[in-house]
Design brief:
Elements (H helix, E strand, L loop, with lengths): L9 E2 L7 E9 L3 E8 L5 E8 L5 H14 L10 E6 L3 E6 L5 E2 H6 L6 H20 L2 E2 L8 E3 L8 E3 L6 E2 L18 H4 L7 H16 L9 H10 L14 H10 L10 H6 L1 H4 L11 H24 L3 H10 L2 H10 L6 H4 L13 H21 L5 E2 L5 E2 L9
Helix pairs in contact: 3-5, 5-7, 5-10, 10-12
Length: 404
C-alpha cells in the first residue's frame, strides 16, 4: 500500500477514536470527504476517507503523490494536511476545512464586483503557485472547484486544494502524462509534449480571463473542438463584455495565455506585473460580469454533476441507495449538483444509470442514452457562456489572433 513519506504524520489508530464523523461534504470514486470534530478540542476538520479496496494501481500512485506533496507544503493559500490515520481498510487524511465555498460560487453572489476583487483572488492563487513552483511542485489541475475559501467572511483566505494530480519534480524532470480539466488544460498537455510547472500558469490565465468577464476564453461542448482551439491559442476580448476592463488586466492575461511555455509568465512574474503590484485597480462594477458568470457557473456545475453522478453510480453504496428510494434520491442529488441548471423531474431520468432493481441490458442502454438527451436539453435551456461577434455569429470567444 502507500509508502509512508513522513512517519510523524501517520497513526495506526482508528480515526474515529479521535474524531467524531459528521455529514458528507463530497464523494468520489474511491474516497468520501466528511466533516469531523476533534473530540479533544472541538476543532472542525475535513477528513478524506479512502477505501483501500477500491484503489487500483493508478489510484494508489496518485494518492501517494498527493500525500507526498501535501506533507511538504505549508502556505496560507494551500489547504493544510494535519495528520493521517492508516488502517487495514482505510486511509484517513485529516485536512483543513474550507467552509467558505468555491471561488466562482462566492463571486456570483456579490452585488458589486470589480477589478479589485478579481485582483485579490488572483494574487492569492499566484502566491500559492509561486510557493509550489519554487519547490518544483506542479499542481496540474488548477480549476474553480479546487479554489476554496477558508470561511464565509468577506476577508476569507482563498486556498488551493486537491493535489491528486500534483507532482513533485526534481530539477531536471519534465512530465508527459495527459491530465487535467479540458477547459483549463495547457496546450503542451493537449499536444502530448513534455511539460513542467508552466502548465499551471496557463490554467491561471484561463481563470483570470473568466474573473474579468464571466465566461472562458476557450469553449466548446465538444472536447476535440475545444482542444483544437486551445492548441491554436486563439481568443479575444469581445465587446461589450470587456469594454470596462483595463488594458493592464488584459495585458496580464496575455502574458499567461502564451502558447510557448518558455515565454509564458511565471507565478513570480504575475505577482510583479503592474496590474498586481503598481496600479490601483478600478473599484467600478463590471456591468456584464454577473449575468455571464451566473450562466457559466450553472452550466459548469451541471456538466460536473453529470460526470459525478455517473462515477458515483458505479459504486455499490450508491446502487443500493437508488434501489431504496427508486431513483428519487439520485434525482435530488443531480438537481443539487446541477446548481439549478436542471429540474428534479429532469434529473430523475439520469438518476437510475448504473443501478436499479429492474431492467436488462436493453433498458440500461436506453438509460445511458437518456443521460445524453437530458444533458443536451438542459444545456440548451441554460444560457451558454457565449458572446455574439460583429458578424452575428455565436462563438465562445475563440477567434483569430493567438498569442505566441
Amino acid at each position: 500500500m502507500l509508502k509512508k513519506a513522513k512517519a510523524l504524520f501517520y497513526k495506526q489508530d482508528e480515526c474515529e477514536s479521535f474524531y467524531k464523523m459528521g455529514k458528507i461534504l463530497g464523494q468520489g470514486s474511491f474516497a468520501t470527504v466528511k466533516l469531523a470534530t476533534n473530540k479533544k478540542d472541538g476543532t472542525k476538520w475535513a477528513i478524506k476517507v479512502i477505501q483501500k479496496k477500491n484503489l487500483g494501481p493508478e489510484d494508489d500512485t496518485a494518492l501517494k503523490s498527493e500525500v507526498d506533496v501535501l506533507q511538504s507544503v505549508k502556505h496560507d493559500n494551500i489547504v493544510f494536511l494535519n495528520e493521517i490515520f492508516d488502517t487495514k481498510q482505510n486511509l484517513y487524511m485529516v485536512m483543513e476545512v474550507c467552509a467558505g465555498g468555491e471561488l466562482f460560487d462566492r463571486i456570483t453572489e456579490k452585488d458589486h464586483y470589480s477589478e479589485q476583487e478579481a485582483r485579490f483572488a488572483l494574487r492569492q492563487i499566484a502566491s500559492a503557485l509561486e510557493y509550489c513552483h519554487e519547490r518544483n511542485i506542479v499542481h496540474r489541475d488548477l480549476k474553480p472547484e479546487n479554489l476554496l475559501y477558508g470561511d464565509d467572511t468577506e476577508e476569507a483566505t482563498l486556498k488551493l486544494a486537491d493535489f491528486g494530480l500534483a507532482k513533485l519534480l526534481d530539477s531536471e524532470t519534465m512530465l508527459h502524462a495527459q491530465c487535467g480539466t479540458p477547459g483549463y488544460v495547457a496546450p503542451e498537455i493537449v499536444n502530448n509534449d513534455l511539460y513542467g510547472v508552466k502548465v499551471d500558469m496557463w490554467s491561471l490565465g484561463v481563470i483570470a480571463y473568466i474573473l474579468f468577464c464571466g465566461f472562458p476564453p476557450f469553449y466548446d461542448d465538444n472536447n476535440q473542438a475545444l482542444f483544437r482551439s486551445i492548441k491554436k491559442g486563439q481568443y479575444e476580448y469581445p465587446s461589450p463584455f470587456w469594454d470596462d476592463v483595463s488594458d493592464t488586466a488584459k495585458d496580464l492575461i496575455d502574458k499567461m495565455l502564451v502558447l510557448n511555455p518558455e515565454k509564458r509568465y511565471s507565478a513570480k512574474e504575475v505577482l510583479a506585473h503592474p496590474f498586481m503590484s503598481n496600479t490601483r485597480p478600478s473599484t467600478r462594477a463590471l456591468p456584464h460580469f454577473r449575468k455571464c458568470m451566473v450562466s457559466y457557473n450553472a452550466r459548469r456545475k451541471f456538466r460536473a454533476g453529470i460526470m459525478s453522478l455517473q462515477a458515483i453510480s458505479a459504486m455499490k453504496g450508491f446502487t443500493a441507495g437508488v434501489k431504496k428510494d427508486g431513483g428519487g434520491g439520485g434525482a435530488k442529488l443531480m438537481a443539487a449538483l446541477a446548481g439549478g441548471a436542471m429540474k428534479e423531474k429532469e434529473a430523475a431520468a439520469v438518476a437510475p444509470v448504473g443501478g436499479g432493481e429492474e431492467g436488462g441490458e436493453g433498458e440500461k442502454k436506453e438509460e445511458e442514452e437518456e443521460v445524453v438527451v437530458v444533458e443536451e436539453e438542459a444545456l440548451k435551456e441554460e444560457a451558454p457562456p457565449v458572446v455574439e461577434t460583429g458578424a452575428g455569429e455565436l462563438t465562445a470567444a475563440v477567434v483569430e489572433g493567438g498569442r505566441e
